[in-house]
C-alpha cells in the first residue's frame, strides 16, 4: 500500500498565493512521501492499530512579489474543514504541473515540474521556476529624478533523486540558478554609479544527503552541499565580479537508550567559503554534543554548540542548544528554546538577505550569545487556537543594511553616492512579545491574527542615538481565507510594520510604515485546471523596503495552473 504526494503542484498557488519575501533567491521544493510500512507501537504508550502516515503538506514558497518586503508567517496549527475530515485527499496524483501568472510592472511568475521516475524504491523529479519584474517605481523621498526602473529576473532549475536502500535513505540534488538585477536605489540627484547595468549571479549546486533507518544501535545522518558561484561585476563596472565555492556539511550520530525513547549523540558541521579574490576565506567548525529525553507528555534536548571560527585568527565560542517541550493538555503545550551561535554572513547569505548590497563588500560574522524563544500554545478552546510567545536575543557585531553614505567625490566626474546598500555594525539586544490567534468557528472562514512588539538596544556603533535600522518596532499580520464553494476560495491579507528607521547622510531617518493589504482568488475549474488572481498594495501606500529602495505600488497578477 503506497501513497505518493506531489505537494508543489497542489499548493503552488492555493496556499502560497500571498507568500512574499523581502528579497531572497527562489526557494521552492517538491516532496515525495515514502511507501506505507506500518509497525506496531509500544503497548504502554498507545492502544490503537497502526495508522497510515499523513502526508506533510507544506506551503510552497512562491515568492510572487519580492517587492512587498514581507513573508506571511506560517500558522502553527491548521484546523481542517469538518466536512472534509477522512474524506478529502490532500495531494495530487498528477505527475506534472505548469503554472503561469503575469501582471503590471511586467511581473511574471512561472513554474514547471514533472516526476520523471517513480517506483517503490526510487523517485526522480525535475522542476523549473521563474520570477521577474521590469517596471518603473517612484521613490518615497523627494528626488530628481522621481523614480527609476526596477528590474530583476530569477531562474532556477533542479533535479532531485531519492532512493530507499535496506540500511539508509539517499537523496541527491543538482541545481543551477541564474539571477539578474539592477541597483535601482535612490541617488538623490547624483549620477548613478552602476548606471542601471544589470548585475548577475550564477550558482551551481550539488547536494548529497544520507539518513539511516531507525535502529536500536546507532543512527546516523549527514549531508554535503556544494555551491560554485560567480557574479558579473565587482567594485565597479570595469572590474570582475566575485567568484568562489561554498561548502556546507553536517554529520550526526545518535545512540538510543531507555527503550529508544531517549538518545545521546553528537552533530558535527563544517562551513567553508573560499573566494577567488577580493574577500578573505571563511571557515567554521562546530560540534554539538547533546542528550535527549522523551516521556509520554514531554521531551527535552540538552546540548551545547562548540564553535571554531577561522577568519583573521582562530576564535572559539560556546553557545547553548536546549529545547524543552511540555504537553499540558490534549492540544496545549509549553515550550522553550535556548540557543545561540555564529552567523557567518557569507556572500551567498547576504545575497539571500538583500541582493542590493554593494559588491565586494564583506560582512562581519556575528555571534549570538543567547537566543531564547518561549511560549504557550493553547488549543483547548473550541474553534480557537492561541500561541503566546516571547524571547530575547543578544548579538555581537550585528549588521544593519543602509543606503551607501554620501562621500566626498575624488574627481569632479565621480558620483558622490552609490545606489546600493552597505553594512553598519553594533552590539544588539532584541526582546519581543507577541501572540497569534486562529479561528475556524465557521468552517468556510479561516482567520489568523499575529501581533509582535519588538524592543531593541544598539550599542558600539559610533553613532549617537543609534537605532535598530530597518527592523520594525511593531508588526501585525492578519490572514483570512473564505471558501465560497469547494472550487472557489477568496483570500485577504494585511500586514503592518511600524517604527522603522534607517541611517542616511549621518542622520537617523524614520521610514514610512508598511501598510500592505492584499486580495486573492482561486477557482478550480476541474481537477486539472485552475485560475487565480491576486492584487497587492490595495491601499496604494508608498513605503521603502530599505531606505531608498521603494516597493511597488498597486499591482495585480492573474494566471493559471495546469496539472497533468
How would you summarize what this structure contains?
3% of the residues lie in helices and 55% in strands. With 564 residues, the chain is mainly beta.
Question: What are the main properties of this structure?
Answer:
564 residues; mainly beta; Maltoporin, Chain A; two-stranded antiparallel ribbon; 2 helices; 55% strand
How does this structure look, described?
The protein is an all-beta fold and 564 residues long. It has one domain (7-563): TonB-dependent receptor, beta-barrel domain (Maltoporin, Chain A, Beta Barrel). It is built from 2 helices and 26 strands. It has helices spanning 7-14, 347-353; strands at 96-103, 108-118, 122-138, 147-164, 168-181, 199-212, 219-231, 243-257, 262-275, 282-294, 298-310, 314-329, 332-343, 366-378, 384-403, 421-439, 445-459, 474-483, 488-498, 500-504, 507-511, 514-524, 529-536, 544-546, 549-550, 555-563. It has a 22-stranded antiparallel beta barrel. Strands 20-21 form a two-stranded antiparallel ribbon. A two-stranded antiparallel ribbon has the order 24-25. Strand 22 and strand 23 form a beta hairpin.
The tally of structural domains comes to: 1
- Corresponding CATH superfamily: TonB-dependent receptor, beta-barrel domain
Q: What would CATH call the architecture?
A: Beta Barrel
Helix content: under 10%
Q: What is the number of beta strands?
A: 26
Order of helices and strands, N to C? HEEEEEEEEEEEEEHEEEEEEEEEEEEE
Largest sheet: 22 strands, antiparallel, barrel
CATH domain topology: Maltoporin, Chain A
Mean pLDDT level: 84
Q: What is the tally of helical segments?
A: 2
Distance, first to last CA: 23 Å
